[in-house]
Amino acid sequence: MCCRCCGVTQQKAWVFGLGVLFAVSGLFFIIWWPDIIDDIVMKSLPLTPTSKTFDKWEQLPIPVYMKMYLWNWTNAEEVKLHGVKPNFQQVGPYVYREERLKMDLQWHANNTVTFKPRRTWFWEEQMSGGKQTDLVTVPHLPSIAAAASIRDSLKPIKAGFNIALNANGGALYVTHTASEWLFDGFYDEFLHYAMSLNNPLVPPVETDQFAWFLNRNNSENFEGVFTVHTGVGSIKEMGEIKFWNGVNHTGWYEGECGRLNGSTSDLFVPDEPKEKALTIYITDTCRIINLEYTGQSYEIEGIQGWKYEVTPHTFDNGQRNGNMKCYCPVDRQPNNCPASGATDLGPCGDGAPMYLSADHFMYADESYSSTVNGFQPDYERHNFFIIMERKMGVPLEVNAAVMISLLIEPDKDIDILKGIPSFYAPLFTSSSSAVINKELAAELKLALNLPSIGCYTGIGFLCLGCILLAVGIFLTLKRKWYGQAAADKLALINSDTQHTNDSIRADQ
């Protein structure tokens, strides 16, 4: 359309009409667009077989790396012979790329989904700080756990056990390669002996092979069966664990300490207050872990996230926070609870005196780290944290580091434990890390920026509308429309002609 083709009235109609249209559209985008787009985005987040969330949840689209550190007992023989203070050296990391896939999905009418998590690990030699053939000396868990289970038994029973232990591969420590300790496994004579026992008082032993992650690589049954809420109908329940292996309480710790809640760490409730702690449940830890808000913000791939981490209260047993008393095993209450900083894993580990803590016993009572040489906690390296974008509930960076240790105590009735000091021997540290990639970050940024994009578009439309209206008013007041002068001249001629005609008729 050109001005030459339109009359003054048509020009006014176009300019004022477009001005009003752009102004109204701008106000719509500024006032209502953010709420509308937020509502659309939130409705698209719940987990369904056809949602975009589903593809990223079923198979994690970003690389996860599990860094395994082993603790080499450098003076094991001296400790055994002379009772000197144990010395441990952290070796590694032995890095494995981890692929996660949800198996055997079952969708339920109550807006939950049941699945089995399968993890597959691939050796990453270039990223590792050691070789799989590294020889590592580690306390012999089967022997020490068995000895601990009969510590308070009658002397004749302990004497018989001691003979059997000495005759069937019992040991204070053993040496194997890193790959054997982690995934490959090795034949263990004492476990083979334990398998042959037909004693109802002894926990059943299913294999004579031993490794920290034996038979776990590519297994869809190891971690159990999870049931989580999809967020359909209740976005504030999205990702919340409802059942694990058909129950909502582990049974390992009393009350709230055994109750299942929070996330499996791959699906979180969106649009939560940033001050709210993150709660996750990791099968290996036998308990939920609360990560507290630090107030620190970080920008990753152009996205702002907030940091949540373990604190001195995370692995407390009631000394710092009375509500954490339930993490003290029932048989150790009320006066024999572990010091603050480590969770007794005995209830979920067939009574083995194993402990879960932050790496290098960071934040733990000094009674743990003072028993051996080799601990050097470093906040920057050993911290367990998640950097979370809270609007969409997407982790931007994760470093989930925990250490497993074994309490070894002297026992004058057991040969392998005679004359040694009491100490907490670190066994291994597991650290799973991941950072959002550029592709996923681009999708997330678009979803986060849509309200702002609409708002800025609205401001642009409003400004354009106001300019058109201002121009129209100016042209109208100044009578500067294209063809306005000719129209005014014609109107004047018509007016004069009409006036003359009126005069003639009056004279007649």
Structure commentary:
The protein is an alpha+beta fold and 508 residues long. It has helices at residues 8-31, 33-44, 52-58, 76-82, 141-149, 155-167, 178-184, 189-196, 366-369, 379-382, 438-478, 484-507, and strands spanning 64-73, 88-107, 112-123, 135-139, 173-177, 186-187, 209-210, 226-229, 241-244, 278-282, 287-300, 303-309, 342-344, 354-357, 385-389, 394-408, 423-435. The strands form three sheets. Strands 1, 2, 3, 8, 9, 10, 11, 12, 13, 14, 15, 16 and 17 form a 13-stranded antiparallel β-sheet that branches. Strands 4-5 form a two-stranded antiparallel ribbon. Strand 11 and strand 12 (303-309) form a beta hairpin. The longest helix is centred in the C-terminal third of the chain and has 41 residues, at 438-478. The mean pLDDT is 87.
- Helicity range of the residues? 25-40%
Unreliable stretches: none
Morphology: elongated
Query: Compute the gyration radius: what is it?
Result: 36 Å
Structural class estimated from helices and strands: alpha+beta
Total helices: the number is 12
Order of helices and strands: HHHEHEEEHHEHEHEEEEEEEEHHEEEHH
Total beta strands? 17
The largest β sheet comes out as: 13 strands, antiparallel
* Distance linking N and C termini: 49 Å
What does the average pLDDT come to? 87
Fraction in beta strands = 25-35%
